[in-house]
Amino acid sequence: MAAHMRMFFCLSLMVILLARSTLTETDNYIVHMDLAAMPKPFATHHSWYSATLSSVLLDTSPLRTTTSSSSSLPSKLIHCYKHAINGFTANLTPSQLDALKNSPGYVSSVRDSSVRADTTHSSNFLALTPNSGLLPISNYGSDVIIGFVDTGVWPESESFNDEAISKIPSRWKGECESGTHFNASLCNKKLIGGRFFNKGLIAKFPNVTISMNSTRDTNGHGTHTSTTAAGSYVKEASFFGYGQGTARGVAPRARVAIYKAIWKEGNVVSDVIAAIDQAISDGVDVISLSLGLDGVPLYEDPVAIATFAAMERGIFVATSAGNKGPQFGTVHSGAPWVLNVAAGTMDRDFGGTITLNNGVSVLGSSLFVLNSAIVLSPLPIVFMGQCHNLKKLKRVGFKIVVCEDSDEYSLDLQVDNVQSAKIAVGVFISNISDWDNLIQTSFPSIFLNAYHGNVIKDYIMRSSNPKARVNFHKTIIGTKPAPSVARYSSRGPSESCPLVLKPDIMAPGDAILASWPQKVAATDVYSRPIYSKFNVLSGTSMACPHAAGVAALLKGAHPGWSPAAIRSAMMTTADVVDNTQTLIKDLGNKNKVATPLAMGSGHVNPNKAIDPGLIYDIGIEDYTNLLCALNYTKNQIQTITRSPSNDCEKPSLDLNYPSFIITVNASDSESGRREISREFKRRVTNIGEKGATYRAKMTPMKGLVVTVEPKMLKFKRKNQNLSFKLKIRGHVSVKRESDVVFGYLNWVEVGGGHRVQSPIVVAGLRSHWN
Ligand SMILES: *[C@@H]1O[C@H](CO)[C@@H](O)[C@H](O)[C@H]1NC(C)=O
Ligand SMILES: *[C@@H]1O[C@H](CO)[C@@H](O)[C@H](O)[C@H]1NC(C)=O
Ligand SMILES: *[C@@H]1O[C@H](CO)[C@@H](O)[C@H](O)[C@H]1NC(C)=O
Ligand SMILES: *[C@@H]1O[C@H](CO)[C@@H](O)[C@H](O)[C@H]1NC(C)=O
Ligand SMILES: *[C@@H]1O[C@H](CO)[C@@H](O)[C@H](O)[C@H]1NC(C)=O
Ligand SMILES: *[C@@H]1O[C@H](CO)[C@@H](O)[C@H](O)[C@H]1NC(C)=O
Ligand SMILES: *[C@@H]1O[C@H](CO)[C@@H](O)[C@H](O)[C@H]1NC(C)=O
């Protein structure tokens, strides 16, 4: 009974002090504690955290009065964590924090900060069809629960209909919390959980007013990502006619649990950790995190630390790479225990046509929502060159204006100008073809490549009275080449752990159609909000749930696979060629061949991932051995693993990862010519039904000799492990971060169909922090 009462100590403890100890400003701190140091009398870590904190508050109180104040500890202790980290979040002054650092069991702490949210047809593009492959084998992900830490959910969305979905798995411990405009009756067999976390936000910003204190999504991001991964079938979905068809998520029968920690009013990591903590406790199988922290080492990244705990419990975590590309070294969430997802384009384009008065018609990209009569009748069309001069633009009047992109004036700026100038239609000519994040304009617009742009320019120049009509709502399927790496997708290497290649994989992220809250504006037309049940968004935020959905299907098909095994299966079977059967290109690098720093192992191929042949598996110890070899202090390692007894007897940089990277310091050489000599050790497990022989095959790497020992792996039976060494020697020229040398190791099954592919990269690294 006593133990039971202490369970709630965290929330109900009364402290005896005056809270006015704050002559300096308070802030939230996420504090890591060593549970092994907890004295016996404490039945739960919660009661211990409370006692530790109240003794610190007493010691630092200037008045040391014993006047009773019933609310101060609860208001100081913001979150107690059970699973994600050993510790809590408290709102403290610097002197209180200093006192806490001397408390028994204190390990480390970080100041609470904000995370960056990396803001239908896609399933067909991934070749997920109902008749064969991963979808039927996994029973559409029916037994798998995906947790989303995001902006909440719009439960009325048709994508959460639970027709044809079996009863909720009995192991589920989550719930649908009541709150503003939200209660348990809104959940069903599809949307099985909804919780919200904002105590950290309110503690850090006491002035904040929470406008929707519940899991209800007033932003749209969470509704979009969750339905991308696991939306049910919805017939006749479209965004104002664009992308018309049946919408569904990657894993259409997987269960959805939403953990709202990203608010319209802001967000803090301490709430994100509380959300992950609860998701672990509730029993999710997969966590999708379309967010991340920039520029912190692993041991100061609470999200990386919380996902370590999730991984330990067999939960697969997918995170977005970030939208800071195409600069190198911008990828965030680079923890070796998660799947980091880059964004690619699809073979679908949304567009509009310009029909010139000479009868010639040209197709461009557009997502303009109205198709009104105004734009259908012929209008004068003028070529303005660069649309940088707003005054000049304002004099044009109600015409179709043609603008051209340049290095001097970015497309974004020109689009903004045309919007401000209130022109009838804007036509933008540009060589950058991944403008999917630009084309949802609030005025009629069409984006053209240089080739089609020239047709228009020629016509205007030759005609005495140039006129044209425009038309929207075109959807073009089967565009080539696809996929390509989206320009904005963040690039590796990962600064937080450059020894592991990140991103891991690429998934569709560009112009993704998914559900949207009915009462949140999907877009606007001349500042007038426009509502829709579906919306088209672009970003690595959209790529992450695609990968989470695929992981859910794999988990459904292979319940025994570890998170590392699922990741390995996805990575080693990813495609490196596009739908023209040539190597995938990078829209952020002049359409050159994409390197693994842009797309990881390649574009996810779910139907191949179901049967990868070999697996590179990783256990908890392997990750600890890596942290040891990174020369982290005992304290830093404990902060991540939550264990005081980390055995650093066998430090090893050879994490059994299905990719290879060597980084060289790009800032300390004149000539840039470097000698490379490195040996990697790996262990692969044969998960095929019987014995099999694999032969190593390497693609050439400029200036380098790559050898594998042994060259053949002869497995006698299922689940047998065999090890090999990969040696890389030679010279590379690395003067800039963009100097990347890469190739692939393939284990090709002799007399069988399996091909187990791993990228090998030598890249320049320039540290931006440290
Ligand atoms: C739950 O919310 C729905 C929709 O807002 C409402 O119709 C219903 O009465 C509520 N149920 C309870 C028990 O409050
Ligand atoms: C909170 O609001 C008050 C009154 O508007 C203002 O004086 C104060 O600076 C605000 N505090 C913070 C932390 O924003
Ligand atoms: C939000 O709702 C929770 C749970 O109902 C409640 O404890 C909390 O005080 C509310 N917060 C605000 C800011 O209204
Ligand atoms: C597009 O690229 C071509 C060839 O590199 C160049 O001549 C042209 O000026 C570019 N056009 C634009 C709009 O950037
Ligand atoms: C760790 O420290 C050892 C010994 O000082 C050194 O040889 C090694 O290069 C360091 N490892 C890393 C990853 O910095
Ligand atoms: C890289 O080289 C620069 C210049 O020599 C040096 O200042 C820096 O410390 C080096 N970085 C690493 C990680 O070795
Ligand atoms: C193969 O290695 C895994 C760890 O990666 C281990 O769990 C398993 O027991 C090993 N299998 C055999 C047959 O030794």
TrEMBL record:
Q: Which residues form the Subtilisin-like protease fibronectin type-III domain?
A: 654-762
Q: What InterPro entries does this protein's entry cite?
A: Peptidase_S8/S53_dom (IPR000209), Peptidase_S8/S53_dom_sf (IPR036852), Peptidase_S8_Ser-AS (IPR023828), Peptidase_S8_subtilisin-rel (IPR015500), Peptidases_S8_3 (IPR034197), S8pro/Inhibitor_I9 (IPR010259), S8pro/Inhibitor_I9_sf (IPR037045), SBT (IPR045051)
Signal peptide (residue range): 1-24
Q: What are the entry keywords? A: Glycoprotein, Hydrolase, Protease, Secreted, Serine protease, Signal
By its UniProt entry, which Pfam families does this protein fall under? fn3_6 (PF17766), Inhibitor_I9 (PF05922), Peptidase_S8 (PF00082)
GO BP terms: namely: proteolysis; response to symbiotic bacterium
Which segments constitute the Inhibitor I9 domain?
28-117
What's the superkingdom here?
Eukaryota
Q: Which GO terms describe its molecular function?
A: serine-type endopeptidase activity
Identify the SUPFAM superfamilies for this entry. Subtilisin-like
Catalytic residue positions: 150 (charge relay system), 221 (charge relay system), 541 (charge relay system)
Domain (Peptidase S8/S53) spans: 141-580
Q: Subcellular location, in the record's words?
A: Secreted
- Any one of the GO CC terms: extracellular region
Record PANTHER family:
PROPROTEIN CONVERTASE SUBTILISIN/KEXIN
Say which family it is in: Belongs to the peptidase S8 family.
| Protein name as catalogued | Subtilisin-like protease SBT1.9
Species annotation = Cucurbita maxima
| Taxonomic lineage from the root | Eukaryota, Viridiplantae, Streptophyta, Embryophyta, Tracheophyta
